[in-house]
Amino acid sequence: MTEHLGGEVIPTGFDVPVEPLRRAAHYTGAPGCIAEARAFADRFLEQLRTEWCADVDDRAGGELLLVVSELVTNADQHSNGPYILELEGTDSSVVVSVYDSSTALPRRFPKNPERVGRHGLEIVHALATEVTVERVPVGKRVRAAFPLSR
After folding, report:
1. Which of 2, 22, 36, 92 is 20 to 30 A removed from 45 (C-alpha atoms)?
2. What digits encode the pLDDT tens for the residues 88-123?
3. Residues 92 and 149 sit within 8 Å (Cβ to Cβ)
4. Facing residues of 97 across strands?
């Protein structure tokens, strides 16, 4: 807690940094996992609303669920094993990370309205402020930072 006396800020000793809200879930790739991941992300958003007083409107919430769907779908389709969805958020942003067992890095194809499929990373890049892909000891991690206010 900080006291303000005569315009001065006086630390009281109770000031502590607040860590972002973090949650993770493990999926096997069995049917229904993508829907479970979306429900997990929806519960995470509700927790941000209640615990962090995050102002998440319907559009931002829907777009975040779309980002989760695209990244989890890619992990589901292109890895030969389980994957992990990790969410980290504050009142203003969420970082979505998906770990999977494939070492093949995803490709972002150029815009082509005639192409059927393979628009996932294009969608994620359009909605996120930052997208990174890196190899990790067990495969790869795809990470997307997403603002909660537009």
Report:
1. 2
2. 999 999 999 999 999 998 888 777 778 777 778 999
3. yes
4. 86, 143
**pTM for this model (two decimals):** 0.84
Q: Quote the tokens at residue 12.
A: 């009281």
Amino acid at 53: C
37's tokens: 């991941």
In the chain, which residues have pLDDT < 50?
none
> DSSP labels for the chain?
-EEEETTEEEE-S---PPPPEEEEEEE---TTHHHHHHHHHHHHHHHHHHHS-----HHHHHHHHHHHHHHHHHHHHH-SS-EEEEEEE-SSEEEEEEEES--SPP--PPP-TT--S--HHHHHHHH-SEEEEEEETTEEEEEEEEES--
For residue 28, report the phi and psi dihedrals to the nearest 5 degrees: -90, -20
Q: Report CA-CA distances (Å) from 25 to 9, 39, 57, 91.
A: 41, 11, 24, 21
**For position 79, what pLDDT does the model report?**
87
Cα–Cα dist 24/1, whole Å? 30
